[in-house]
Amino acid sequence: MIKMLTISPIPAFSDNYIWHLEREGEHWVVDPGDAAPVLEALRGAPLAGILITHHHLDHIGGVAELVKQHQCPVYGPASIEGVTHPLQDGDEFLLMGAAVKVLAVPGHTLDHLALLLEEPGGEHSPHLFCGDTLFAGGCGRLFEGTPKQMYGSLSKLSELPPETQVYCAHEYTRANLRFAAEAEPGNAVLQNRVNQVDSLRAEGKPTVPSTIGEELATNPFLRCHIPAVARRAADHGAAENSDEVEVFATLRQWKDNF
Ligand SMILES: [Zn+2]
Q1: Domain boundary assignment for the chain
Q2: Residue pLDDT, tens place only, 152-185
Q3: Cα separations (Å) of 123 from 2, 118, 120, 126, 210?
Q4: Is residue 127 annotated as a catalytic residue, yes or no?
Q5: For the chain, where are the E strands, in sequence order?
Q6: Binding-site sequence positions for Zn(2+)
Q7: Under CATH, what is the fold of the domain 6-256?
Q8: Residue 123 has pLDDT above 90, yes or no
Q9: φ, ψ of residue 80 in degrees (nearest 5)
């Protein structure tokens, strides 16, 4: 019987999470922006490998030092220096006995990848490592891609099974939900989530992972097809009868200045 995979956050900088995957003494990390907290979490154990979602420094800044100390492989977008195993959309590989699927999710950056990890046997929820694309209650800023690209990427993620656990790379949930409550004031499920997240943060606990189901019910960037959200976008500059991409683009711009 294979032991359970454990996934825990390693806090870094002011609000990043480096995800730490461990099974039977094998350790991997996702998006190590800083080496020091990873080395501390490993407590002398060897690091088997690194996964990267995109090229921003707060996701890759610790890679060189970790590779120097652990001589481990680095899986990620081909555009990033130091990647030993370049990944692209549709790739699949095995990681600690679990199947990993690579999804291209351009928008926040053009090279952004999401990694979907599925345990064998189908009794566990899939795990999604989505970097700065889908956040709990929000989504990443558009630094490189177009609203159409980002909306396409978010739509792809929203089609994953609702029980999929969403491991984003920042603790932005409270601020995201404050905006969400403005974008869809009549959403009672969202109001409950605001309260839950407020209590978690008051106790200093992480608000991630969330699930795709929770995001579908409360994240305005996944709810551009909902008339109430489209109406709020219209109040903030979207044309009447906008399509979903225009609603998305308006929400994203509104949030940038929120
Ligand atoms: Zn980023």
Answers
A1: 6-256
A2: 999 999 999 999 999 999 999 999 999 999 999 9
A3: 13, 10, 8, 9, 18
A4: no
A5: 6-12, 16-23, 26-30, 47-51, 74-77, 85-87, 92-95, 98-104, 113-118, 127-131, 134-135, 138-139, 165-168, 210-211
A6: 54, 56, 58-59, 108, 132, 170
A7: Metallo-beta-lactamase; Chain A (3.60.15)
A8: no
A9: -95, 130
Active-site residue flag, 58: yes
108 flagged as catalytic: yes
Which position among 54, 55, 112, 127 bears the catalytic label? Answer: 54
Residue numbers in the known binding site are 54, 56, 58-59, 108, 132, 170
Question: Cβ atoms within 10 A of the Cβ of 247, count?
Answer: 28
121 Cα to the center of ligand 1, angstroms: 33
Catalytic site includes residue 112: no
Q: Which of 27, 59, 112, 127 is catalytic?
A: 59
Q: Is pLDDT of 25 > 90?
A: yes
Annotated active-site residue 132? The verdict is yes
Rounded to an integer, what distance in angstroms lies between the CA atom of residue 7 and that of residue 28?
10
Q: Of 34, 58, 70, 112, which is the active-site residue?
A: 58
> Which string of DSSP letters, residue by residue, matches 3-62?
PPPEEEEEEETTTEEEEEEEETTEEEEE--S-HHHHHHHHTTPPEEEEE-S---HHHHTT
88 has a pLDDT exceeding 90: yes
Q: Tokens standing for 124?
A: 């566990």
* Cα 60 to ligand 1 centre (Å): 10
> pLDDT tier at 116 (50, 70, 90 boundaries)?
very high
Cβ neighbour number for residue 9 with a 10 Å cutoff: 17
Catalytic site includes residue 256: no
Tokens found for residue 141: 């800023």
pLDDT value at residue 1: 60
Per-residue pLDDT of 186-230, as tens digits, reads: 999 999 999 999 999 999 999 999 999 999 999 999 999 999 999
